[in-house]
User: Fold these one by one.
Assistant:
Number 1:
Amino acid sequence: MAHQVPEDGTLLPLMEEFYTIQGEGYHTGKAAYFIRLGGCDVGCHWCDVKESWDAELHPLTHADKIVENAMLYPGKAVVVTGGEPLIYNLDYLTSQLQGKGIKTFIETSGAYPLSGHWDWICLSPKKFKGPTPEIARHANELKVIVFNKSDFLFAEQHAELVPVGCKLYLQPEWSKSKEMTPLIVDYVMNNPKWEISLQTHKYLNIP
Ligand SMILES: C[S@@+](CC[C@H](N)C(=O)[O-])C[C@H]1O[C@@H](n2cnc3c(N)ncnc32)[C@H](O)[C@@H]1O
Ligand SMILES: Nc1nc2[nH]cc(C(=O)O)c2c(=O)[nH]1
Ligand code: SF4
Ligand SMILES: [Mg+2]
């Protein structure tokens, strides 16, 4: 699957990078530069970026170039996503970003070992390949995608693994949103430690 990606994290398979508004979760509504890395083998059948899965399709790009590009925008936060970004060693990229005063946020399934220096970790665990216990202990936000009713129990099981104070979100799977959103609304009203997260960028028609 992978290119020969150097272990030191200086070269990363970059699918796309774009400046937009964080659409989901705790930082919803904030301007951020998105860095989308190619490569994922978790296999969510409802994944909304399947084009990211094959790392070979995405050019190895120097982390310094990515940092330089991120610096061109007034927003001082990046979201590193994918694909599954933790397939790669993110120590170099994130230390360079933080060294330039940019906040580092990650979107991850947690299926690979934690690397990088993060201001915010959004863990979105998957049934298909579960998260490591280590990342659950470091999550700032747990965002569970609700595709069917069984995902509420899955969400509660993962809420046991994250630290006290970790934000808890239920986000409807996009294609099932019509059916699942009413169930989520009801669930949150009955279990108010949870909040609802919507993919607001899809309603705003922005990337
Ligand atoms: C495409 S993933 C990339 C990052 C990482 N692989 C992960 O799954 O967290 C980014 C976010 O989108 C969510 N997501 C992906 N497909 C979705 C869908 N069809 N509906 C709702 N959320 C989705 C994921 O759960 C994750 O929180
Ligand atoms: N606007 C916007 N917000 C997002 N939050 C998480 C995203 C992702 O694909 O990781 C995403 C995305 O693709 N676009
Ligand atoms: S882990 Fe993330 S990128 Fe990978 S298939 Fe699932 S939603 Fe898509
Ligand atoms: Mg997305």
Number 2:
Amino acid sequence: MKLSGASNVEDFVGGLRWVSGMDGKLVRLRERRDEFLQGLIEEHRDRRNTAAAAAAAAYNCNDEEKKSITNRTLIDVLLGLQETDPEYHSDQMIRGTIAVLLAAGTDTSAATMEWAMSLLLNHPNVLHKARAEIEFRVPPSRLLTESDIPNLPYLNSIIAETLRMYPVGPLLVPHESSQDCTLGGYHVPRGTMLLVNMWAIHNDPRVWDQPREFRPERFQGQETGVVRDGFKLMPFGSGRRSCPGEGLAMRVVGLVLGTLIQCFEWERVGEELVDMSEGAGLTMPKARPLEAKCRPRSELLPLLSQL
Ligand code: HEM
């Protein structure tokens, strides 16, 4: 993430390429990454073969049953596809798919949860309101599940407001014009790199009332699980190259954040507010990682002690 997020002078001044050693660093990193991912593939391949053989021997099971035993993870699914189309779903293609999902899907979701939690610690009234909603919808005898998320509009509003104020893809991903075009009166020649300053749009006072105020209420009444509002709210980008992980991200962030609120009492470590400065990096991390105090909620203790 560090290497891919950095601006490199040698991308613009070709002659500097061999001085910085950046190419070499990236190649070495790729080799280590490929070795690690290939290890995962082999591990799954062995396990699938053993599980399928054991299942067939023990129960004489049919193809459908075999599939349900061996299709437990994404790598299993990709290896299953490899059996039907080995040329397209090569190990290299599987390594690429895992790498892109890890790179695009983990830091982004984790950073969004960290920003949301930081905002909640600085706004305890919002945290209490979110807890009240969860208590009303989810009995203390069970943990919140994915199917509860659509029934928690306030929690969804908190996530939308977090993504508005702290979009972890503040400039989206660089796009390139495939044809000459005119944008806002500017001539954009074919092949130009185009960056969209989503952070500026999300925080523009001409578009949003008091944009630097954390007010999840502004999204109340909106369909849950949707974080898109024309072109003024687009934390996942827009169009053909928008984030394909949006649905997964909204479920994961909702489930984790909701469960943390459901199960624990949260407090700031001191009197002072959590520092909300933005750090440098590809997925807009907090400048100072969040530290907070938490303890299990007494009502949830019987349930938590059984986990
Ligand atoms: C809160 C979490 C996330 C946010 C805010 C987010 C945001 C974004 C943004 C802004 C883009 C660029 C869109 C554009 O340039 O128009 C993008 C691309 C992408 N995202 Fe996400 N993302 C998140 C989670 C995920 C997850 C969980 C996955 C998959 C497991 C994922 C996979 C991808 C991929 C593969 C792309 C590149 C798509 C392409 O170039 O066609 N993202 N994401």
Number 3:
Amino acid sequence: MGLITIHHSPLINNNTNGGNNVIGFWVHTDPQILSVLRSNYTSGLQIDLTDGSWISVPSDPSSFFFNVGDSLQVLTNGRFKSVKHRVLANSRVSMIYFAGPSLTQRISPPSFLMNNEEECLYKEFTWSEYKISAYNCRLSDNRLQPFERKAVNISLNDS
Ligand SMILES: O=C(O)CCC(=O)C(=O)O
Ligand SMILES: [Fe+2]
């Protein structure tokens, strides 16, 4: 299953916000498996480095940007991270294909990926269970948290 969206984050004068960045799309992780993004020549997409700083993704209209979603984080048992990101209001236009599972699909890592004794970080759930749970969360929440088996601390710097 998939979904295609087109985003336009209009340019908003920073002076109207006391010189602070104006956010076009608030911080979130993508819920699906993989997001494939193509943008115009305008930057604005930023990744949360979890230490309070943000790194900008350079715009390149001749490249695709792939982003790991929450479902792929679970499918790889945390090996691939679904990073928090946001978009600044900056005349940016992007088109994104979100590749997601079907509603009844169980999301859990395949056995061939698991090392001996490796424990699943997440309880098994279906994509529709995730979606129902996500409706009760805020956009910026860790929407995988209700499915964690125990407190997992996944940071960008984990090996
Ligand atoms: O507009 C962008 O570059 C990214 C938008 C986004 O993060 C999303 O739609 O999930
Ligand atoms: Fe996103």
